[in-house]
Amino acid sequence: MKNNCVVTFSKNVFIPVTNVSRNACDYCVFRARSPDDAYLISMNDFLALAKAKGAATEALFTAGEKPELAKPNLSSYFKKAILDSGHSSLVEYTRELCKLAIKHGLLPHCNLGVLSREELTVLRDLNASMGLMLETTAAELEAHRNSPGKIPAERLKMIAEAGKLEIPFTTGLLVGIGENPQDRIRSLHAIKSLHRKYGHIQEVIIQPFIPKPLTPMWNESPPSFEDMKEVVRAAREILPDEIAIQVPPNLTAPRVLIELGASDLGGISERTIDYINPESPWPKEEELRKAIAPFELRGRLPIYPRYIEKGWYSEELKPLIEKYADEDGLRRKESKSGLVV
C-alpha cells in the first residue's frame, strides 16, 4: 500500500458530455450561454477520444447539471439533442457512453452534478467511482444566486445516497467563491461526518477559484496561496487519514501542499484539456515527477486500493480492474509503449 512518501495521480480522458446546465455560477465558463455554443457529445466524437486514449485508464465524464431544467432555449436544445441521439435523458445517454468506455479499456468516473438515488443506481455498476463537488456548506452565496443545484443540503444528500449505495466517492471544496474560513472548516466536518457514517469518501479535492474572462467574477481575486495552505492543513487535520487530499497540479504549486498533507494530484490527461479550467494546461507526467521530488509519483485507478480490497465494484468492471491494478491496488507499471504491464 502507498506510504507517506507516495503521491498518486490518474491518467484519464476528460469527456464533457454536455455543457447545458440548470446552474449559472458566477465563476463558470463551462456552461453554455446560448444554443449556439451548446453541445451534446456525439457517440462518434466520444469513440474517437476513447480509441486515442493512449495510456489512460480512466474516462472522466462531466456534464452540466440537470440540463433538461436549464433556461428554456437551452433545455429545448438539449431535449431535442438527447432525443435525436436515441435516448431519453442525460443519465441514460451517459450510461451508454460508460459501456463504450469499458469496451475500450477505460474505467468510468461520472460527475454529472446532483443526481437522485435512482440515477445513481442506474450508473453505479458501470462506474469505478463517482463524484460531486460539495464546494461549500455556506448557503446563499452571491456566486450561486442563479444556481439552484448549489444548495448545500441537496449536495450533501446526494453524497450520503452514494454512501448508502457503496459507491467510492470523490468530493471537494472550491476555495475563494465567497465563503469564509469558518465555512471551510464546517464543510470539511460535514464531509468527515458523512464518511464516518458510510465509509465511501476516497478523496477530497481542495481546488482554488480561478477568475475567468466573461464571467461575473472575472475581476475577483483568487484565494491566496496562504489560504490554500491553510485549507490543506485543516483538511489533513480534520479528515480521516484514509481519505486522500487532492490538489490540482495545473492550478496550484503541489510540492508545498504535499508537505502539508496532500497526497493526490487527481486526473491528468494526455489527450484532452481541462474543460473546467481551459486556460490551465495539464503538466506532463515527467514535469510532475520533477516538481514533487523527492516524493514518489505513482499511478492509480479511479477506484482507490481499499475499495478494490472491499470489492466495491461490479462484475462489469472486474476484468479491467484486475488487468490494471497491481498487488497494492495501485496502477500497474507501464511498458515503454505506454501499455500497462
How would you describe what is shown here?
By secondary structure, this protein is an alpha/beta fold. The chain has one domain: Alpha-Beta Barrel (TIM Barrel). The protein contains eleven helices and nine strands. Strands 1, 2, 3, 4, 5, 6, 7, 8 and 9 form a nine-stranded parallel sheet that branches. β6 (201-208), α7 and β7 form a beta-alpha-beta unit. α5 (152-164) runs parallel beside α6 (181-198) and α6 (181-198) packs parallel to α7 (225-238). The radius of gyration is 19 Å and the shape is globular. The model has no long low-confidence stretch (mean pLDDT 95).
Give average pLDDT, whole number.
Answer: 95
Number of strands: 9
Number of domains: 1
Q: What's the level 1 CATH class?
A: Alpha Beta
- Give me the strand/helix succession: EHEHHEHEHEHEHEHEHEHH
Query: What percentage of the residues does DSSP assign to strands (E)?
Result: 15-25%
Rg over CA atoms: 19 Å
Assembly state of the chains shown: single chain
Structural class label: alpha/beta
What's the shape? Answer: globular
Helical content, roughly? 25-40%
Q: Termini separation (Å)?
A: 19 Å
Fourth CATH level, the homologous superfamily:
Aldolase class I
According to CATH, what is the topology?
TIM Barrel
